[in-house]
Amino acid sequence: MSGADRDAGGLKGRRIAVVLFNLGGPDDQASVKPFLFNLFNDPAIIGLPGLARTPLARLISSRREAAAQANYRLMGGGSPLLPETRRQAQALEAVLNDRLADDEVRVFIAMRYWHPLTQETAADVAVYGPDEVILLPLYPQYSTTTTQSSLKEWNAVYAGSGVSRAVCCYPDAPGWIEAQADGVCEKLDAPGDAPVRVLFSAHGIPEKLVTGKGDPYQEQVETTVASVVAAVEARRGPIDHAICYQSRVGPMKWLGPSTPEAIEAAGRDGLGVVVVPTAFVSEHIETLVELDIEYAELAHEKGASPYLRAPAVGIGAPFIGALADAALDALDRTGGRTGVAPFGPGCKAKWKSCPRGDAGTCSARTAA
Ligand SMILES: C=CC1=C(C)c2cc3[nH]c(cc4nc(cc5[nH]c(cc1n2)c(C)c5CCC(=O)O)C(CCC(=O)O)=C4C)c(C)c3C=C
Ligand SMILES: [Fe+2]
Ligand SMILES: [Fe+2]
């Protein structure tokens, strides 16, 4: 049934599907290895032809399995990413149905490497029969390894109805920045007067993706951090801060400095740290294990005390508001005021780095 048919029947106007994209995580111990295989078999992660990549992905997933399982056991056996994302989807659906009272909005979740996989969600969205589809990555900063990989996969598998529009990124969207600034200030206000450095810790990527392939991720991480620092400093004056990159995998050179290096430097400088997850929007293995356990131990060893960690933005109102603004922006309802970066033809006007070759996947309209 089209939007016009529904109007004639006195029902709500358009049917809008919003698809949230994230990486996915294993839900139990048995799914750790196939999840890792899917991740390392993605050409956006290992840029080799399939004949070389697939056996390598099998090898790496076998080798990493036991250590990764042990880390997931620290969180009860599997990843909390899907339940966290479901809470965000519910909160966003409520806000959007409120703000688009004449339309019907349903929010779906498409994960890249574990269930609900993009292909499964694409089939669900097709059954829903939307008039419009908003593709909304839960990655504030665009990277070829995350956003582009997810959007490419979606474009390859979605065969349903509706005009699709993709949000490329929202590195400095006001609600996203406010949510992080709130988290930083909450930790800076914690009792105690030991001097601290605020470490903005983003998931790393190989450096050559930025220098050789024009991946805009680093520039957008720097944009996020500059905006959060400005917001925090407006509230409480100058702060000592630095950007660093966590979760390095494999032998290649990744963006630096690494978060362990930055923690060690703070210890040497006689400072404690407030670590802020600046590219993750929910809690999962990289925050609950890597930041809260592994790096907390390192900070203790290196004398970076206190070690404080700002929460991920989760379902806080400012962040869910930022997602709603981004979706409305994609629907052309706000006149482009929300900080959604103009990829495609407008990209060069705002950003130094634009993804080369495949920028089309990130323009406002993808497919009819
Ligand atoms: C901004 C977000 C992310 C970027 C960029 C990213 C790049 C990237 N990741 C790997 C390898 C792994 N990532 C893993 C977990 C993981 N990664 C992200 C986000 C980004 N990854 C999230 C949200 C998660 C958590 C999933 C969960 O289960 O809770 C893992 C698995 C865990 C582990 O073994 O450490 C791997 C492996 C690469 C190689 C890469 C860029 C090239
Ligand atoms: Fe990752
Ligand atoms: Fe990790």
From TrEMBL:
GO terms for molecular function: lyase activity. CDD domains: Ferrochelatase_C, Ferrochelatase_N. It catalyses: Fe-coproporphyrin III + 2 H(+) = coproporphyrin III + Fe(2+); heme b + 2 H(+) = protoporphyrin IX + Fe(2+). It holds the Pfam family Ferrochelatase. It comes from the Bacteria. Fe(2+) binds at residues 203, 286. The keyword Iron-sulfur does not apply. It is found in: Cytoplasm. InterPro entries: Ferrochelatase, Ferrochelatase_C, Ferrochelatase_N. It is an enzyme of class 4 (lyase). Keywords: Cytoplasm, Heme biosynthesis, Iron, Lyase, Metal-binding, Porphyrin biosynthesis. Pathway: Porphyrin-containing compound metabolism; protoheme biosynthesis; protoheme from protoporphyrin-IX: step 1/1. Its EC number is 4.98.1.1. Catalyzes the ferrous insertion into protoporphyrin IX. Belongs to the ferrochelatase family. HAMAP family: Ferrochelatase (MF_00323). This is Ferrochelatase. It comes from Brevundimonas nasdae.
